[in-house]
Write a structure and sequence with these properties.
Number of helices: 13
Distance between the termini: 30 Å
Strand order of the largest sheet: 9-10-15-18-17-16
Radius of gyration: 22 Å
Structural class: alpha+beta
Amino acid sequence: MLFFSYLRIMKQILLFNPEHDLALANGDRHFIAPRNIREMAHDLADIMEAILPSSDSESSFISPLASAHPVPWGWDPAVVEQFKRMGITAQELPTDDALAALSRRSERITAHQILCNFRKAHTDNTFIGESLVARTFDEIADFAERHQHILLKAPLSGSGKGLRHVNKEGLPLSPSGGGTPESSEQSGGGMLSLSSSLKKVESWANALIRRHGYLTAEPYYNKVQDFAMEFIADATGCHFIGYSYFITDGHGRYIASRLMSDAKAEDLLCTYVPRKALHKIRQWMILHHTDIIPSEWDTTRHPLPFGIDMMIVRESQQSTVYSLQSMVNHPDGNSEFRIQNSKFTIHPCVEINLRMNMGIIAHEIYRHLLTPDTEGTFRIARFPDNASLRAFHDEQTSLHPTTYRDNRLASGYKAITPINTGTTHLAYISCE
């Protein structure tokens, strides 16, 4: 059962709380998000409802609230407190023990453990990925010496915070530093495009180790494509929702998702890697989802969507300019492009997000709003002021008028969140 199919059968309050990652890291039920995040939450408040036909969805102003089922972007102590202030009864909310367990599983050590277990079970060279749980700074220094170019991550963080990029002295930054959003940053929350010596990060790292007991470190990879696999855990088990192709900015913040069928997404990934490798990952994650979802969490009452960020990695020391050669057919029936002097592998677990995410929203937008043969882009944009947003909206509406076929979008531009006085954030679709 897909997440939004589940929502249609009940009254619900859909709450967009993009501050979730920050709130989870803070842990305070009275956490207040930074102003820019609060503005985003206000402007894009309807983003979860946008993909649901109005006849199927209850408004955020359900009355009486006590009879409604709360569905936030992500569960944390602060959002539970917010629901309580709205009048939601305790019976409709997760317990403190469940929240604590979910917070622990949301830490990056979970992604580390899943990656290690997957790599132990799949030793072939189709897959890549290594990480370290560092409990002393000496371990970080040894790891940096071996890999020369690493990313340090706090156990919990969001919006590109809690990360440090360490580049061995005298080495240039990799081609990813300062590039375009599509090619610039490692997925999963972003990377600072600054070269920091170990000495510069030592106090920061030691403070995190004292507070949390550890931080994680991973090598920097020559990424060519971000993607994710989206799942939901509910009363009947764990189910694959679909693929997500996404783009981030230079700080790892989400910008856009490709809109296309899962079949097309898989075909694109298979221009780099065998199809059976993707299926191996998907099946393994479903089978081992109990290592991700805590047993304390009631998936019957609160189905939990989650995404696993992955990436296609190019293993090559050659020039970044390559030429496509002829199609090559795999024994499993898959066809792929061979790229000169390059080998591609999959990193199967960069990050795990135990919450709703833009990849799921984009997947459902394609499924419910677009014609099957239409492709496009779902994008989140921030403008300096409301006038700039309105000017953009008017221009796109004029240049790319919408066309429909069978009551679904076939081409053009469409805003999917309201444009009100003071709005500076916009979620929209651009279809080819």
